[in-house]
Give the backbone structure.
Amino acid sequence: MIDKPFTYTLPLPGAIPSKYDNHIIRRLSALKGQCLDNSTFEKMVAEDDRIIYEVYEIKRPEVAGEILMGISIVHPGKVGKEYFMTKGHFHTVIDTAEVYYCLQGEGYMVMETPEGETAVEALSPGKVLYVPPRWAHRSVCTGRQQDLVTFFSYPGNAGHDYGTIEKLGFRKLVVEGETGPEIIDNPRYR
């Protein structure tokens, strides 16, 4: 672990960091129970459990005072009409925030609080998104050809709670509509 100032580069396109500590690969099967069209999901996983997103982490000690950061890359595609997305998470320390900076591609950040408040913000290159404490969040790539690439940073002690989303899902979904992406209520929200 580096305990001195350091730099790295995010060369575009792609923005894979010149130095990183962890490369996480998530396949479609990681979204089991999260997709609106479960039969299409099962068929797609059986045919080709493809990579739908990747995370490159620059690790720091997971303690208050440190800042963890990295790059998230959501690849284009859909399950039925629903665009590829990340699993989404709350922070384990729920009163911690996160910042995203969109470097490439088009998409949305779907967010909600435990109390049921929801927000969906569009992402495009140059846009910075602040996700306040207590808000679960999920990135969705709506581009047809280009990855959605975001830089993220959050407090070192925040942690990730994926379990709540795996059980309940998100209240809002991003699907392909007649004229482009549409935000709809999740009929399967539990």
Summary: Helices lie at 38-47, 163-168. The chain has one domain: 22-185. The chain has two helices and 13 strands.
